[in-house]
Amino acid sequence: MTSALLTRARAGDQDAFAELVDPYRRELHLHCYRLLGRLPDAEDAVQETLLAAWRGLPGFEGRSSVRGWLYRIATNRCLNAIRDAGRRPPLAPVPPFDAPEPTRHNEVPWVQPYPDVLLPESAYLRREQVELAFVEALQQLPPRQTAALVVCDVLGFPLAEAAVVLDTTSTALKGALQRARSTLRSPATRPPATQPPAHGSAGERSLSRRFAAAFVADDVEAVIALLTDDAWLAMPPAPHQYVGTAAIAGFLHASATWRDGRRYALLPTRANAQPAFGCYLDAAPAGLVVLTLDGDRIARVTRFMDDTLFPAFSLPRAFS
């Protein structure tokens, strides 16, 4: 079947080409997101990958799988994008009120959330491989180490095929992979270990509902009661992070005072295999909140101050 599609595609049949590559489109998009950390960048990389694949069909001899060939193109496109653009952080929004001094600053403020509706339907897709903390940790590795780790440890390509995908030798790939694994295990980079309740479980729904009710009511004490002792609050692309319940409470109180009675509304969605909400202030978009759960508590609240994300999550532009 694949050989027949290849023959037709090489002859200029665009429908055959679409049938050949469409099964991999979603996983390629997630792959590019893992490497780049941003939705629009991932979309651009996928489009460039498919265009390059269409143009490069005459040179594809079928010695590797179509999947591996597409991943090779996509990975190169992502590495080129990182090299060309660097890791310039986006402009940080200026807080509209006198915010407390943050506990620390975010090292990767460009990372955006990923809509669950775009995740590929794969039995091998593991939650911890799409969570925000993992994607952020990947961004702190050198790009080629990130690619090595994703291709080998996440996608599961055998070493020899992974070396072809990454256009390197097996020996060089082993070295990059060892360095990436070592860095990812270091305390400064390692994603925090959490044990969230099962996706869609009563525990997850209850904890998410309780957070939403407390958040929209400006009940800071109730929000704090739901957090782990070492929880943290982040607001990318702003670099500010507040770690620990006292620091988070200070920020939430300052925010509530500034709003002076104006209330939030939250609409549920999902991002990075985690509960999330579209946030509205006086019916207008006011960011997207993603929760990282740990048992019956919340370990992390990430509020993305980027209203352009709403269409990707099918969230309305106004709350009514």
Automatic annotation (TrEMBL):
Annotated transmembrane regions: none
Region (Disordered): 177-205
Transferase recorded as keyword: no
Domain RNA polymerase sigma-70 region as annotated: residue spans: 20-88
GO molecular function, one term: DNA binding
GO term, biological process aspect, one: DNA-templated transcription initiation
InterPro entries for the chain: NTF2-like_dom_sf, RNA_pol_sigma-70-like, RNA_pol_sigma-70_dom, RNA_pol_sigma-G_actinobac, RNA_pol_sigma70_r2, RNA_pol_sigma70_r4_t2, RNA_pol_sigma_r2, RNA_pol_sigma_r3/r4-like
Organism superkingdom: Bacteria
Protease found in the keyword field: no
Keywords from the named record: Sigma factor, Transcription, Transcription regulation
Record domain RNA polymerase sigma factor 70 region 4 type: where: 133-184
Family to which this protein belongs: Belongs to the sigma-70 factor family. ECF subfamily.
Oligomer and partners: Interacts transiently with the RNA polymerase catalytic core formed by RpoA, RpoB, RpoC and RpoZ (2 alpha, 1 beta, 1 beta' and 1 omega subunit) to form the RNA polymerase holoenzyme that can initiate transcription.
Alphabetized PANTHER family for the sequence: ECF RNA POLYMERASE SIGMA FACTOR SIGG, RNA POLYMERASE ECF-TYPE SIGMA FACTO
NCBIfam families in the cross-refs: PRK08241.1, sigma70-ECF, SigX5
Record's protein name: RNA polymerase sigma-70 factor, ECF subfamily
Species the sequence originates in: Jiangella alkaliphila
Lineage of source species: Bacteria, Bacillati, Actinomycetota, Actinomycetes, Jiangellales
